[in-house]
Amino acid sequence: MQIDILVTPNEGEPYKVQTNLFVVVAWERKTKRKASDLAQGIGMEDLAFMAFEACKQCNIPVPPSFDEYIKRCRSIEVVSEEPANPTNVAPTSED
What we know:
The chain contains three helices and three strands. It starts with a strand and ends in a 13-residue tail after the last strand. The chain is globular, with a radius of gyration of 16 Å. It has one domain (2-82). α1 (21-31) packs across α2 (44-57). It is 33% helix and 23% strand.
């Protein structure tokens, strides 16, 4: 599962990060939930945590504390989401 997250900090320019397998597994470990649970909706803390972990993966400087990271963010939003196993549309016959 890949989620593109747009982070708008209190200061500076907005930036986009993308989740990867490591980020999703870190989220699962933290929340004791499965990635498939995200289909029912994603909370702001979930998004913030994924953005925080994705920043670390992309070498974007973040404070050591997750709470400090949240304090520095004005907004966080999903800009695109790709399923882990996309499926192709089944071909149909045309009459």
